[in-house]
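How a chain folds remains the central question behind the approach discussed here. This step matters because it turns folding into a mapping between discrete strings. The sequence in question and its structure tokens are set out directly beneath this paragraph.
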Amino acid sequence: MSSNHVLNAQPRDVSGTRASRRQRRDSYVPAVVYGAGKDSETVTLDHDQVMHSLEREAFHSAIIDLKTDAGSQQVILREVQMHPYRPLVLHMDFQRIKATETLHMKIPLHFEGADVAPGVKTDGGILAHSMTELDITCLPKDLPEYIAVDVSTLGMNESLHLSDIQLPEGVELTVTAYHEGEDPAVAMITAPKVVEDEVLAEEGDAVEGTGEESSADSEEGKSD
């Protein structure tokens, strides 16, 4: 299992709220590492390195080499706690992985071919998607960076459903979010909202005009 993502960590000898605050002031991120049948351990990470890593989409669902003085261990990111309004990472959780243990992950969807889809290129529609990631299970060696979704053949008002997605080899879909037998839409090409708003406005003007004419006819009848 190779990884293109590396984080350098230092053992964290002290714990507690006060110690964590002091570490954050010193530009370190407190973190915990658990799993794979080993005891949990606490570490600290360089805040700048963490922020640069979090900016990469693949980092959130990738195998990460967590390097310490004691050696390297492979982990996946399980949780990130951010400050409510400052660009500050408060805490991170990592889970160790084993080559023989199945992972349960959320993997991002990449929609490909929208620019050549007939509904977009010919009819001027836009691609709307109701899902941006999928729950999957797989062994660490089969973990994909993303799942490609081909929408190049969609026409106006046509949809692509969950059952249409081709999963990479070794990857299985976890459909716990849906009832058995359902096949929800993942993406659809629709008319631009501006066009829809203009149509509604025109229809509203027509109705308003009809109402004015009816009112005028009523007043004319009274005068007669």
Observations:
- The chain has two domains: 5-96, 103-195.
- The helical segments are 17-25, 47-54, 118-121, 193-223.
- The first strand starts at residue 5 and ends at 11.
